[in-house]
Each structure stands twice: as C-alpha cells, then as structure tokens.
Amino acid sequence: MRKFYIEGGHKLTGTVKVSGAKNAALPIISASLLGSGPSLLEDIPDLKDVRNLAEIIRRMGARVDYQDNTMEIDPRSLDQYATDPELAGKIRASYYMLGVMLARQGQARTSLPGGCSIGNRPIDLHLKGFKALGAEVNINGNIVELTAPELTGNKIYLDYPSVGATINIMLAATGAKGQTVIENAAREPEIVDLANYLTVMGAKIKGVGTDVIKITGQEALHGEEHRIIPDRIEAGTYIIAGALMGQDVYVKNVLVEHIKPLLAKLGEMGVELEEDIAGVRVAAPEKLDSVDVKTLPYPGFPTDLQAQMMVLLTQADTASVVTETVWEDRFKHVEELETMGASINVDDNSALVKPARLTGAEVEATDLRAGAALILAGLKANGVTVVENIGHVERGYEDIEEKLTALGAEMEKVEGTIESQVTTA
Q1: Domains and CATH numbers, the chain
Q2: What would the mean pLDDT of 324-337 be, rounded to a whole number?
C-alpha cells in the first residue's frame, strides 16, 4: 500500500504550476465521442480517474492515444454502447457515458458510478433530464440502461444546481431534436469549458455560466482541438499550502476569477496575496485571523476546498465555524485531523474549529480532498505524518509529491509497509 511520508515544519518557496482541471477533462473526454472524427485535447492531467475513463472508452471501441498530457481520441471505431461495469464502478464520471451514448446511439448502459464516499450522491436528476428528453430508464440492481429511438428537446428544471446532471443533460441534448432548456443549471467553470468545446465541435449552446442554459440539437458534431482550463481546486490547495507554510510561493497557471471566494477568505485572514494575469503569489502571515466559511455551489466557496481550508483554520488566532451545505457527509477528515491534535466540534453540518498545535501522526485519506487536507496538515505539523490510502489523492492531484517537494517540502511516496517514525513531541 502506497503512503505519503511527510516531515513537517519546512517552509515553502518557489513556483508550482497547476495542471489541467480534472473536473473539466473528464466530461470533455466523454464529449469527444460525439464527434464524427478525431479530437486533440491538451493539458489533460495524468490522473487515475483520467486513465480509467480512457480505458473505458477504449473498451467501447474508440482509439485513444494519451501521452505528455495530450490525448487524441478517435471515436469512429466505437462500436459499443455499454461501459465495462468493473471499470465504470471505479469512477463517478463514467455516468457521462449515459448522456453521450444517448445522443450518439440512442441507447446507453453503465453501472452506477463510484468515486469518493462523501455522502449520498444519487443520479436522480440525471435520469429526470433523460426522461424529459424522451429516454426510457431501466435500473436493474447496479446497472442503468437507457433507450431512446429519438430524443426531443424539452424544458428541464433541476431541483438542485447539480454539476453532473447539468453536464449529462447538455451532452444528451446535443443530439436531441429542437431546443432543450435547463433551468437552475449549475454555473461552474468546468461546465463553461465543456460548452466551449462542444461549441467548436458545432453544438449550439447559449447561457452557459448562468442558471439557464439553452441547447439546440444538431445532426452531427465534428472532432476538434481544445485545451483544458487550469484546475481551480488544485490551485486553491497550493495557495492554502502557501498560506500555511509559504515564504514566497507563486502558484502559476491560475484563472483568478475561478477562485475569488477562496482569495476573499484568505484576505480576511491576513494572508499575503498578490494576483497577476498568470497566477497568485502567497506567503504565510505572522498571525492568521479567524473567519467563518460556508460552502455553496459556484460562485460560492467550493466544497472541494472545505477540508483544506479547515486545516488552515486550525492555525487561526480564535475559533472559526465551517458550514457544509453541498454534501452531507463531508467531515470525515475531522477525525483524522483530531488524531493530529486538531480541536474540532462537529454539530450536524457545521464544525467549530479551534486553534490547535498539530503533531505528526498516522492518518488515512478517506476521500480525495480529505487526503489533500491531511497532506497540508502534515506540512504544518511538528514531526512526521504518514498519510495512508493515497489512491484517493492520486485521483485528483497530478504529481503532488513532486510539486510540493520542489517547493521545499520533505515529502516522499513510499511503497509497501514502512516503519512508523511518528513523533509525539
């Protein structure tokens, strides 16, 4: 079992480059199957989820060439409408095959999606949208099967601005006759990036970035070139690392507009920030002021930075409150942080975070962002931290140990069993 082995207390200095956004890459890779010819996608991060999705579409018959963060996908040989159930169960984004295959072939089959265990993550809004477009839905155990000899545009209101449902309905609607209107749609930058790609492929989409998206179906789309936007969550993670331990950290390849809620909160805390067109320079202040944080759908504070922000709040001068409104089971990292000395009281969807001195310990990554938070805690802690179950982290962060080590962190990925060297000083 692979583990991260981190010696805390080392200051961070230098430049770190943010990779392409995983949450944009996965739907865009899926959307490439809608083209009549090859697509060339750049800045695709080398992540476990990306490799799993590439293998899923290979097994469906598409040709995929992936190297040096560039992926060429040729869907012309694709001859299957069903995903490999074992592979699909490993990655939540496999459900994008439902929308894509409905639009492309009029039928789709996949297993219910996997991913992080952060609460109830149903696909009922996805299925509601597919039904509104004319699809027949059949669920047998863990398998979802859709059939639709013809898709017809419709008006669809989402009870919640779900990113996944918005994307999946957009994908299906590109192949529907007439216009589809998605109301209360999600507004995340990753959805805008997908829409930009679909548009250059020949799709007709309006209103992306607002809560009403209109898609006019087209008979055919073509392959295209596209560069993925920078990962705002990875950028935020490294900026928070700089706020914890930075002397002079420059996080480059950042679209600052995408992380305004984080930068606003860090500014309230007294973190030294300097923005420019290409990135953000950050340094840890002598004293951190406490702030309250409430996660919300975009453009609110992102739930995917909640755990990392909680680590920073343990170093504030007084108590802070973190309120999670997006996922109901996203405080699993609290118990692990308490193992490291954090003082956090959870009451339903709120957590009272008190100032604490962190100490190295053996902890486990319970999900992707929790794993990132434990790495940040390890950078700050006195002594050595061992983070286990790092497969979660590798799903969403490309070369995180190399990037942090280049900034001055003492961090190593260890294969197999290691002797614990955790200090309790």
Answers
A1: 3-19+230-414 (3.65.10.10), 22-227 (3.65.10.10)
A2: 90
